[in-house]
Amino acid sequence: QKGTELGARGPTGPPSPPPLRRRTPRRSSIGKEARGSFAARRRQPFYKAQGLPKMTDAGGGWLAHVDPATGATYYARGNDVRWERPTEASQAPKWQSRLDPATGATYYYNESTRETSWTPPEVEKEEAGEWRTRRDDASGCDYYYHTVTGETSWTKPEERRLDEPEEEPRKLAPLPSPPASPPKSSPERTSPKMERRVSPNVVAHVPPPPIMKEPPARRSSTELDYRGPAPPTRTEPPARRPSLPVPPPPLPASPPLKRPTPPSLPVTRTSLDTTSSESEDNDSIALSTSVPALAQDYEGHDFPTFAKAHFQMHRKGLFKARTELDKICRWKRATMKLALLESCCRDADLLAEALQAHRNVTGYMGDRSSSKNKDGHRTKLIGQLLRCKQELRDEVYCQLVKQTTLNPSSESAIRGWELLLSVLSTCPPSEQLAPHVGWHFGEHLSSTQESADYTQSVASYAEKCLVALPQVMKLGCRREKPTLLEAQATSKGEGIPVRAYLVDGRHLTIKIDAWTTALDLADALGSELGGVSRQDGLRVFEVSDEALQERCLDDDERVLDVLAYWDRMQLQDKKKRRKSAHYKLMYKVRYFYTDTLSSPCAEELHYQQARQDILDERYPCSLPEACTLAALALQEQYGDRNDHSLRVVQGHLADHVPPSARSDRDLIASLEQRVLKLYGKLRGYSPEDARRAYVSTCRAIPVYGAAYFEARPKTTEYPSQVVLAVTATSLLVVDPSSRAVLKSFSYGSVVTWGHSSASFVVVEGDEVSHTKVQFATPHGREMNDLIRAYVEALVPSSED
Prior knowledge:
- The protein contains 24 helices and 25 strands.
- The protein is of the alpha+beta class.
- The protein folds into 5 domains: 1-129 and 155-161 and 185-205, no CATH class; 298-491, MyTH4 domain (Serine Threonine Protein Phosphatase 5, Tetratricopeptide repeat, Alpha Horseshoe), CATH 1.25.40; 496-589, Roll (Ubiquitin-like (UB roll)); 600-699, Acyl-CoA Binding Protein, CATH 1.20.80; 707-799, PH-domain like (Roll), CATH 2.30.29.30.
């Protein structure tokens, strides 16, 4: 640390060491002299005790040495020794940024010079040098000198970098070769960084003032005599760590007047987050304007009022004296020995689980030392909340509100809010506690607590929790335990990218959060594609890779619950060493109750799905219908019939006709001619017209758009095993072997219908005479919701 001071002394030579304190002689003069010399050697630096020159890093691999005899500085790199400062040694000093643990502010530290500063150093300016002022003692006037070139002037010259070209090149004296012995006077100019660190006992070399014929006018007494910024006062350096070769740098005396502004956190969407920057800005504005309104809804429901009515207040000492309300509602480092809620204290099992939950809370927040990492504490707490009673969930919410109130540690407070957001993504508080938890969120919207790196703040977490509270109250508790990836992203308020496929193989990636439902994801996909609304009937499906199984997700079903279920099933299959099915999300048509679509994109999606369903024979069609659909597909893809389209189409009939229509090889040629003839009659159809005609032709098929469900009729009128097909206009009973429609229940003739967990019932007729038919099926609820959606789309026009 003293190498910089000695390197800046110049020709004046090193100062004499301070006098040593003499101890009182105890036994003999010989012992006194021996002890005195030993103490002197011990107090001296190592290089002085060994008679070695002081050396510092000059940059570029060069070391700056100070000759003890003359005080002059010379430079050495290997066997190369010279008096002049090498050009390679003029590299920029190595500056690093550090954080002050006391104030959280950032200061800057130079590894070479051990200098500290609150403001970012301008290395390039220091390399080029600058003009500085000094007072001439003889005349009392100020003159200017350059820190690198040594030029002096009575008037302040214009600032110029050394690497800029000059108007006239200066003639510099040639540098002398390294002498055999140190020169009598080797002026070592001090760089701006060095000059600030010169010891008060050492006079740094400054060029003498220029010779003047007439000194400039003296400044008035009102002007400040500014001699440059004083070096920041060093605090006592911390203890040297054995694992580090260099102790941590000291801090400046006081923090800057204005702390640097922390980077703003991106506002997370309430249900989803796309990659469009324009939509992010719009959502940020909408979210910020809704947060104050949400906070106003919880005004008057302060948390201490709830604590006064429901907390166990008698908890102090052996005789359980009553504690203060203010004390029980704020942060406490010690582990609780009694639950907060009286309902948990009365039940021994709930009390044990409440204390275990508090250990996980304090372990995650860092208030309690633990061998388990914070992810382990969070996973254990979330798993506990999924299978417990509502009283324990309220207890955990109360513990988190308590630990995040008046918490003196910013790091602990940030972790507490992270855990609050994770708990909100898992289960809701009770209806009685929810307004008081929302009041706690609103109270911290103006909090100034931030993390050490300024990337997280209590106010941003309070805003996210305030938005998430009404959503979790609506959705209820999770069905599946969140994955580790989801838990980490949720605790940071970040979205999780999810991929959804289209029928034609394309896919879209949307960022969702723990509160995104299947209906929210469907709306996001429709908006991303362009103008697809809910009335177009598209929803999100769960489809296996082989397309052998598919299930339409419920509108209020959390998407991340589905992904967590896939992850759990794959882990179980891996443990049992069996092949697991792979699933994906698909955006496709669910409801076929409208012929008028909202946008061309919706028309294209309906057309792509209709064509795929016809070719896969999901909905069987007759031979004339198959030929008409094939001709419309050719017109949509190739336009009007011409020689080029004929050459492309011939021999590729399988791309447009279902397998059953071309099963007879002898009729393939005649079938191809029939399709081409119909294709020629469609001249003038635009691709949009061809798509609309294709979908309309498909809707004329009786079973088109039907959702199939296996069932067993509880009557001898039908076979023992049937398939129930729910269409947009009727419920069909289909024979699975022959695919023949055995019975059709039109929605206009159905009096009512119902379901249970294992059956579905439909009643046909009128109020006087009706027939009841019952089927055993585990898909009763799904059939009931699908029929209700179709009936609600058809009935209002007739009732009005």
